[in-house]
Amino acid sequence: MEISPRFLPAGATIRSTLAIMCGQEVAFAEVVYALPVADDLNERLARGESYWDIPRGGTIQIMRFIGEPAEASSIAAARWQAGSINGFPAAIGHPILDEGLGDAEVLVYAGGVLTVVRTGNLSIDTAIAIASGVVQ
Questions:
Q1: Which partner from 36, 41, 57, 71 sits 20 to 30 angstroms from 10, CA to CA?
Q2: According to the CATH classification, is domain 13-134 in 3.40.50?
Q3: DSSP letter assigned to residue 69
């Protein structure tokens, strides 16, 4: 069970990794990435640049595990929609603002493996792009 995203936002760096084995098989894998905040964030905002266009930090957590397609989430039920990623069934949990205010989650179930992409401070389009690059 591999986590090798084909897409990550610029500046993403690995913060932690984890794998849990069941016998000789990986049953759970996780990679957490951090995104940088622009050093000149306040100055750029003061000059009138759009908040959404400035690197403002964020997190990406990608988990993959064998099992039933279920995951606990703090995203409100009204912000979820059914979808598909690369032809596989998906549940898409939108952040408070789709531009990237709050957490987003994309859950994809394929071949008995649940992939969860959880992002903070990133747009829903970015979360979906990351999930599309993980589930192949």
A1: 71
A2: no
A3: S
